[in-house]
Write a structure and sequence with these properties.
Length: about 270
């Protein structure tokens, strides 16, 4: 089974093959998703909200991301593993970014990093790519800028914003990024950007024309029922399954029905 590389993703775009990505935060899910043929496992800093219960991604730390990315890498044979770089680990200076992103590759075994931002961050992307660190960009709704953007809202709705987004995506491509996440972007704009770029776009809330799609795993599994959004399709309803399994377990323990003889040791 051939592994997915950044080159594979470019070839997939050229051939018109859709790229499938999911977030993943641990080895157990990585094994399941890898076996299911998911192309990219993104260790998103969304784990700070989904797993750690924070209200945004802003307080995610490098140590947290390295811990989870190492686990995901252990569970992966085929997929490309991307480590999301947390807030303030790449914005201070290109040298700082190089140190932190280089550590991500060295210490976690990930294949690439993802950083947020467009034209302003492009010189940093260039610096990283020049030393051999594959970079995935992320424009549109960039969650690390949630306060500056005034909330989690669709980006690029007026022509000035749309023009900025087009320029951001192009700047990332010119700087050497191998792909770009488009988050919460109107579908027609995402389609224009996708057609204009030679690198793949991976959409989340960006319509069907992107070269690939990514969702937060716990959202699409219906595990995180505290979050819902128009763009999330739930492919399972695991939160209810978990609650029901826990209810049945609790009842059986309280009524002395578990453990039964088949779960007990005679000697
Ligand atoms: O952190 C994350 O999970 C992400 C995806 C939503 C693209 O950045």
């Amino acid at each position: 089974m051939a592994s997915i590389t950044t080159r594979t993703l470019l070839e997939m775009k050229e051939k018109g093959e859709r790229i499938v990505a999911l977030t993943c935060y641990d080895a157990l899910f990585a094994r399941l998703l890898d076996a299911a043929g998911i192309d990219i496992l993104l260790v998103g800093d969304s784990l700070n909200q989904v797993l750690a219960g924070a209200s945004s991604t802003l307080s995610a730390t490098l140590e947290q991301m390295f811990y989870h990315t190492t686990m995901v890498r252990r569970g992966t044979e085929r997929a490309l593993v991307v480590c999301d770089m947390p807030f303030l680990t790449y914005q201070i200076s290109p040298e700082d970014a190089l140190r932190n992103c280089g550590r991500a590759l060295k210490e976690t075994g990930c294949h690439a990093v993802k950083i947020e931002g467009g034209q302003a961050i492009a010189p940093t992307v260039r610096r990283l790519v020049d030393v051999g660190i594959p970079v995935m960009g992320h424009v549109g709704l960039t969650p690390q800028s949630v306060h500056a953007l005034g909330g989690y809202r669709v980006q690029g709705r007026d022509e000035a914003e749309a023009g900025r987004l087009r320029a951001d995506a192009t700047a990332l491509q010119d700087a050497g990024a191998f792909g770009v996440v488009l988050e919460l972007v109107p579908a027609p704009l995402a389609s224009q950007i996708t057609k204009a770029l030679t690198i793949p776009t991976i959409g989340i809330g960006a319509g069907p024309a992107c070269d690939g799609q990514v969702l937060v795993l716990h959202d699409m599994l219906g595990l995180n029922d505290q979050f819902s959004a128009k763009f999330v399709k739930k492919y399972a309803a695991l939160a209810e399954d978990v609650r029901e399994a826990a209810r049945v377990f609790a009842a059986e323990v309280r009524e002395g029905r578990y453990p039964g003889p088949e779960h007990s040791f005679g000697k």
